[in-house]
Write a structure and sequence with these properties.
The structure is a single chain. Helix content is about 0%, strand content about 60%. The strands form two sheets. Strands 2, 4, 5, 6, 9, 10 and 11 form a seven-stranded mixed beta sheet that branches. The protein is elongated, with a radius of gyration of 14 Å. The mean pLDDT is about 95.
């Protein structure tokens, strides 16, 4: 069984910074792609950033230059550093991981529990 546990987030004023992280645990052989999604009230969940094996990064246009995703393949943790935060970044942030378990030949996507990020104006 694989679990993703998120930490970080919280409340910050516009222009400030926050970090969120997500740790995967369980019978993990390897993690392929990590992702961060967010969902604001009344809106659909959207992709914020991804990081592939080999540390290739992909960002939603609205966060490019402000957010940085990184990964630790030894500890199986993904990080999201959020700088220059705006009120429109307010949302619940979710991490995802495409995991190959030790007893599997395929990858499965797991989700974290969600973390509230609130940016006040």
């Amino acid at each position: 069984q694989v679990q993703l546990v998120q930490s970080g987030g919280g409340l910050v004023q516009a222009g400030g910074s926050l970090d969120v992280s997500c740790a995967a645990s369980g019978s993990i052989l390897r993690v392929n792609t990590w992702g961060w999604y967010r969902q604001a009230p009344g809106q659909q969940r959207e992709l914020v950033a991804q990081i592939f094996r080999g540390a290739v990064e992909n960002y939603q246009d609205s966060v490019k230059g402000r957010f940085t995703i990184s990964r630790d393949d030894v500890l199986n943790i993904v990080y999201l550093r959020m700088n220059s935060l705006k009120p429109e970044d307010t949302a619940v942030y979710y991490c995802t991981a495409d995991v190959q378990a030790t007893d599997s030949n395929s990858y499965r996507t797991y989700w974290g529990q969600g973390t509230q990020v609130t940016v006040s104006s």
